[in-house]
Every structure is written in C-alpha cells, then in structure tokens.
Design goal:
This protein is an alpha/beta fold. Helices cover 43% and strands 19% of the residues. It has a 3-stranded parallel beta sheet, with helices on both faces. Strand 1, helix 1 and strand 2 form a beta-alpha-beta unit. The longest helix is centred in the N-terminal third of the chain and has 13 residues. The termini are far apart. The model has no long low-confidence stretch (mean pLDDT 92).
Amino acid sequence: MASHKPLILVIDDELTICRNCVKILSKMDYDVRYALNGYDALEMVDETVFDVVVTDLKMSNVGGMEVLRRLK
C-alpha cells in the first residue's frame, strides 16, 4: 500500500508565520498548505481532507477556536 505525505493546514493571520511553518514542515516531508484567516481555512477544509490543522487562536472574523469547533 502506498503511503501519502501527511497533509497539514496552517492557519494564521500573519503571512510570515505561515511561510515559516510551511518552510519548516516541508523540510520534514509534510505537505503543507496555509490560510490567512478562518473563513478561507473553512473553505479549504470543505474541498480537502487535512490530516492535521495548526491554528492561531486569535484572528479577526473567524478565530481559531471557532474554526476548531466547526471542524469537529
């Protein structure tokens, strides 16, 4: 059976943090995507199944806790 790279979604309203997370996790052989807000993240989750979600808790509009509630 072929194994896949774990797919990680990073959610943060700071682009620099997202880019750094992508850089670090990609070197560890993960497939990483990012969203700059909770709303975009929820749209991404509707289209793609992620193995792990890493989120900032305090963001404008849809915060990290709300994203986690909706994902659950």
